Amino acid sequence: MVPAAVLLLSQNPSACGEQRSWLLLIDSPNTSSRYLHFAKGCLCLSFSTPFLQPPSTMVFDSPSSASWRRGIMSQSIASYFNKKPAEEKTTNTVINEASLGTPTSDMPENAVLGNNTTSDQEKKDGDEQQLDPMTSRIEGGVEYKSMVWWQAGMVMVAETISLGILSLPRAMATLGLVPGLILLVFLGAMASYSGYVIGQFKVRYPHIHSMGCAGEVLFGRWGGEILGWGQFLFYVFVMGSHILTFSIMMNAVTDHGACTILWMVVGTILSLIFTLPRTLKNLSYYSVASFISIIGAVLITMIGVSITKPGLRLVDGHETLSVRLWPQAGLTFHAGFLAVANMVFAYAGHVAFFTFISELKNPRDFPKALAFLQCSDISMYIITAVVVYYYAGDQVASPALDSASRVVKKVAYGIAIPTIVIAGVVNGHVGVKYLYVRMLRNHSEDLMHQKTWKSYSIWVAMCTASWLGAWVIAEAVPVFSDLLGLTSALFASWFTLGLSGMFWMKMNLMQQGRWWKVVPRGRWSFGKSLLLLVNMLNITVGAILCVVGLYASIYSMVQNGATNKPFSCANNAG
């Protein structure tokens, strides 16, 4: 018997591990059975199930045939992967629902409107485990999915909050107390929401492990390549900046007791050693020390400036602190934008969120870790920026440690050693993990989870090459600081704000895999419309920060020229 219609779909293997398969659906109006043949790699499975009774008359015209096959395929695939019989439904109902864009029983309204819960939670925990690349397929292998929520929260704090917090008082001095406080709270709220959307997106697409995988879901393979390598490049520059900060700290503590190149080599070796554990759970214990370290350094700085009061001025014979509620007179656009950008990038830890969620025992615990991070960074940023600016005044330095006395500066830098090292280590670990997973996730023997010399040697080699590259860039590039700013403007603005808005739209404005087929207006609530505006704002702010940030970075390169000499022993602590 010749089938009335045959639908064949094919996809190529993906570096991000999406379910790539061949699907063959044979429609025949003369039998009550529909046959779905599913082939995955070399494993071939087939089954026949009387999903639907054939209609008494079936005319295979273009609309009804396509709609009927689409409905059949949706039920068939759902039945196979959910391991339950598909619900009986008349063919006419399937045709009507598919033609009108109405979700079938296996594609409920919540799936279209972006709610992460479908009938039977859309993605069962077991299915998520199978799709997530961090789930081991071998017994006794490396257990990456081992963090509980507070450990993930500690790693997120270590990655996000570092000495960059001490640049916020300078930003507050530029913008004034009122605009500065409003911006810190507003940007913190935006960062919290965008982080929550990233968590939703991960639950919806469990195979995602990095921004590269997310880019592939949004824009296809080229989008995945651009975002994936952009993420890695961003991490390399962040790693280099931590090596540079380590050398500045050592020069400050030791009064330039050795060549700066030596300090940078020491910082690179230390960072490499702490990056060698393959799981984030091990880094979570270091992250506790990093959290205590940054709190101690900030407290020492605040106490130091409150005693010396470098912002004290004589006005009409009276001593007064030079604190302003509003921006400086004659504030230039360039200076104002840099102040706002410092505040935005203080929240820019989102690039690593997919990796953190992938190593949680239960990915649905991510909102707890996110709440821990956001409560910590928003409160610390506000307190530090206000207190240090209040006592240091308009002339507060960036970092604020330079406004404290020489002794306080040394003590604070000494206490900050763990956070300088560990914050760079967390970023380096996530950057290397992207390469590691990309290379090994589709390995036939699940090499990534093996406890063998070969699998660990690959990890060590990747860590060594990445830290060596970061050291060379930080040492050899004369305009490294400006390049770091350019990289942050190009990627961090999108990773933190812009892409999360696109993730929300992907989950909410798409039907049947097409951007242009949006949810019918009648099924939109006021809340959904409001969220659409919020996410459009995220995309807009991300785009503005990217464009203006690129301009500011290039302008700074042109104006400042080379800011340091390659491989120089000179004191860089100021």
TrEMBL record:
Q: What UniProt keywords apply to this chain's record, in alphabetical order?
A: Membrane, Transmembrane, Transmembrane helix
Q: Where is the composition biased (Polar residues)?
A: 98-119
- Please list the GO terms describing molecular function: L-amino acid transmembrane transporter activity
Ranges for the region named Disordered are 98-135
Family the UniProt entry places it in = Belongs to the amino acid/polyamine transporter 2 family.
What this protein is called in its record is Amino acid transporter transmembrane domain-containing protein
Q: Which GO terms describe its cellular component?
A: membrane
Organism for this UniProt entry: Exophiala dermatitidis
> Which InterPro entries would you find in this protein's record?
AA_transpt_TM
Q: Which cellular compartments is it found in?
A: Membrane
Protein's membrane topology:
Multi-pass membrane protein
Span of domain Amino acid transporter transmembrane: 149-554
A Pfam family matched by this chain, by name? Answer: Aa_trans
Which chain regions cross the lipid bilayer? 174-198, 260-276, 283-307, 331-357, 369-392, 412-436, 456-474, 486-509, 530-554
Q: Which PANTHER family match?
A: AMINO ACID TRANSPORTER (PTHR22950), AMINO ACID TRANSPORTER (EUROFUNG)-RELATED (PTHR22950:SF479)
